[in-house]
Amino acid sequence: MWKFLGTITKHLTIAIPAMMAAGFLFGVIFDSSFLKGFIIPFTFLMVYPMMVNLNIQKVFEGGDLKAQVLTQVINFGIIPFLAYFVGLIFFKSDPYMALGLLLAGLVPTSGMTISWTGFAKGNLEAAVKMTVIGLALGSVATPFYVKFLMGASIEINFIKVMQQIVIIVFIPMIAGFLTRKFLVKKYGQKGFKENIGPKFPAISTLGVIGIVFIAMALKARGIAASPGLPAYILVPLLIIYSFNYVLSSVVGKLFLSRGDAIALVYGSVMRNLSIALAVAINAFGKEGASAALVVALAYIIQVQSAAWYVKFTDKIFGLPEPQMQAPLSSSDRFVGNEEKAPIQEGR
């Protein structure tokens, strides 16, 4: 089972489009309304394992204040507003797709922030802190951003969105923290990192592909009526991700050391699409399927672009110093819910 799940996790760029196609076919052929009952279980399956590997204590370690501040300024002062205005341009007649674009830009950092930072020989400790801070701030800020930016376009039930954030993020976060504490006590820090922790992301992958399948199935007949829609959605996503890479690269090169700069890039470009997907499909009912479709397509761009960016880090930021090339532990290589970073050189 673990081998099978690990294979899916390593090939998520193939698995997600495959599940999207399967969900589309299912939704066209069958009545998919019953799938709504599986949303909450798959949501928990997606988010909880990610939280088990999240080391909250890292946020209290200092030494990289400038990198942390610059990252969160980009995450909350620039990208959400960019996503909102791009959504107004491309989805003027479909506010729920504009909402999906906003959600994809609202909750920053995933476990892949740490994985890709490590592979590019950036500052892992800074990346871990960015992940924890970004997740916490994004979860609190999301209902306010959605209400403030989208409240005039669609009906936003602020209390319902806040309740969903508690269910989707904070309850799994508490459960994950307690689980981690128990497992570390039972197996030790080394045993948890090497043998237990790496198994959880594979479980999270089941939740991701399950939610993607449901989102596509619920939206299938609408897509069948407009077959060019997925390609059209990819255009604004490409604009946002391209802008984010350029901005974070320039800011990192101007103001930070190489290690912190790489952490900043992946700490701002990598979005927590699992939480965005869960909010879209849980908080907005049937209409949320349109928002979820946008978020699901963002997975494809995010994982592929992260892999390609690694190839250019030395050209952008220079070669790493020997002392910065600390090896990744097994739990740091993959702490999130997306494709595992290739660790071997040349892949």
Describe this protein's structure.
The protein is mostly helical and 347 residues long. The chain has one domain: Na+/H+ antiporter like fold (Up-down Bundle). The longest helix has 39 residues. The radius of gyration is 19 Å and the shape is globular. The chain starts with a helix and ends in a 14-residue tail after the last helix. The C terminus is likely disordered.
Number of helices: 16
CATH class: Mainly Alpha
What fraction, in percent, of the residue positions are helical?
Answer: over 70%
| Coarse structural class | mainly alpha
User: Please, what is the average pLDDT?
Assistant: 82
Our measurement of the CA-to-CA distance between the termini, rounded to an integer number of angstroms, reads 25 Å
What Rg, in angstroms, do the CA atoms define?
A: 19 Å
How many distinct domains?
1
What's the story with the biggest beta sheet? Answer: none
Number of strands: 0
Shape: globular
Oligomer: single chain
H/E order of the elements? HHHHHHHHHHHHHHHH
CATH topology assignment = Na+/H+ antiporter like fold
**Which architecture per CATH?**
Up-down Bundle
Strand content: under 5%
Q: Which stretches are low in confidence, meaning pLDDT under 50 for 5 or more residues running?
A: 323-347
Summarize this, please?
Helices cover 75% and strands 0% of the residues. It has 347 residues and is mainly alpha-helical.
